[in-house]
Design goal:
The chain is mainly alpha-helical. The chain has one domain. About 55% of the residues lie in helices and about 0% in strands. α2 runs antiparallel to α7. The chain is globular. The chain starts with a helix and ends in a 26-residue tail after the last helix. The relative contact order is 0.14.
């Protein structure tokens, strides 16, 4: 049994899907889309970051490995390199930027609440591919 699938699903549950869908609708992000929605794209990109994929080709190899579980991971159907490459190039980046800004606002509100306390380090994931040693760059 692969527990990574379940951890990923649990992480995704924290994302406010309705808010994301509003940003998609605002930009007509899923217009004329049947299978590979903006949500599917977002989950593929999050999975890519969390699993330290360093290229689209490498991401697709991993997704193909989990092909039987791709529906449960939220990737949708037919995730191939050319499809993912096209949507990354053509879809409006504002959808993802606005959603990220919304998540940042939520984190800032939680942080400003006196009853919310973070005792450990906070790490932010972004699209950079620079590997850092956490023991050196705290």
């Amino acid at each position: 049994m692969n527990h990574g699938k379940y951890v990923f699903s649990q992480l995704v549950e924290f994302l406010p899907r309705r808010v994301f869908d509003r940003f998609v609708a605002k930009c007509d992000g899923n217009k004329k889309i049947r299978h590979f929605t903006c949500w599917n794209q977002l989950l593929c990109m999050i999975f890519s970051q969390l699993s330290s994929r360093d290229s689209l080709r490498n991401l697709i190899i991993v997704i193909e490995t989990y092909q039987s579980k791709s529906y449960h991971l939220g990737f949708g159907e037919n995730v191939i390199r050319s499809n993912l490459s096209k949507v990354n190039e053509k879809r409006n980046y504002k959808i993802f930027e606005d959603f990220a800004n919304h998540l940042i606002l939520i984190a800032q509100e939680k942080n400003s609440n006196d009853s919310f306390e973070i005792k450990d380090n906070i790490y932010a994931f972004n699209s950079s591919t620079i590997d850092l040693c956490l023991s050196v760059f705290w």
